[in-house]
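User: Run a structure prediction on this.
Assistant: Running it now.
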Amino acid sequence: MTTLAFDTSTEILGICLEQDDRYYSYTAKAGLKHSENLLKEIDHLYSSSGIDKKSTDLIVCAKGPGSFTGLRIGMSIAKGLADGFGCPVISVPTLDILAYGYSYLKGAVMPVLDAKSGKVFTAVYENGKRVSEYLDIEKDKLGGIFTTYNEVFLTGSYAPAVMELFPAEKKLTLDPGWNSCRTESCLALGKALFAEGKQDPDNAGPIYIRPSEAELTRQK
């Protein structure tokens, strides 16, 4: 099976290509210039690996929350490539990707991303399962969630800032790999959904949680 996965939801661009027991990846802090780099680096992975694009069985992409522009780029390219390759697309929530692989931990796992305007995107996971909604919450209200748990493991690009915001909160633990690329997790989650017979409908779109700043301005 040949699977292509990529994540454009943050400033870190991650791409991975897997065929049977062969695995190839690309990671770069692209500064949200994913439109300039994504297709180019995908082409490079196929050519350098010797894998035929036509052999692609599945495309997996992150669907947010995250950068509005990055998500639109990622999902539109995923759909375009899937049409060209003749394969399905499965999109995976970014917070699920960040929390993947920590089911062995006690307490809560909380991936945290900067949502701007004094807020963060987050969700709560226990034993590998999401137990909350995808949240768009004020930073200072995170403390109300922390009180529910004896231990809280923070990961994601905004996790260090949350640690600084709650310096006296002893139950918090920072993931040593808080800012690492998790495209392998994106791929694994997508393949698991594919094995269950799932794929995105034609009208699938990103998880935004809230309107973009441009949409909010128009509403005013």
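The mean pLDDT is 93.
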